[in-house]
Amino acid sequence: MRVSVDLDELLTAYEWVSAGEAAAVDAEAYVSRVNGQIHWCGEGVDEEPPEDIEDGGLYIAVPHESELDLGRSLVLRFVEEHLPAKREEIDDFFRRRGAYSRFKSLLERSRQLDAWHHYEQAAKEAALREWCTENGFAASSKPAGG
Predict the structure, then answer these.
(1) Are 14 and 62 in contact (CB under 8 A)?
(2) How far apart are CA 91 and CA 89, in angstroms?
(3) Quick check: helix, strand or coil at residue 59?
(4) Distances (CA, A) of 22 to 41, 76, 113
(5) Separation CA 67–CA 51 (nearest Å)
(6) How do 3-6 and 38-42 pair as beta strands?
(7) What is d(CA 49, CA 100) in angstroms, rounded to the nearest whole number?
(8) Domain boundaries defined on the chain
(9) Pick from 70, 58, 3: nearest CA to 30
(10) Comparing C-alpha atoms, which of 114, 115, 11, 23 is closest to residue 70?
(11) Most buried pick, 37, 84, 101, 112, via CB within 10 A?
């Protein structure tokens, strides 16, 4: 039987780890292979992680976006599906710093920002569900209101 991991909590941990990497700050999270509990480590975390947190047999690090192919390649998949005429312009964005903010500005002008948010969220959830399966976990969602 697979150990259950709360998908919403995993998603929050994933976003924290990914934001920490982008900001070059210490932000890690680990999932217990025994009970599915997520342990947070890094700047601003008051709770001490278990002493054996680096034991790969007991814990696995929560991935960040680059490990799950959810950065630039996700943007380009969205563009192919929703804004194919803008592909060359968006490719140019990624040749310089600040690409993501220029991309979001283009989405606002094109009235595609909501579509992007839904697309990105669905991709994150699908990638994390797949990550869970590959690592022996069952992704679960808490019932609404519970």
Answers:
(1) yes
(2) 5
(3) strand
(4) 16, 19, 21
(5) 25
(6) unpaired
(7) 33
(8) 3-65+132-140, 72-118
(9) 58
(10) 11
(11) 112
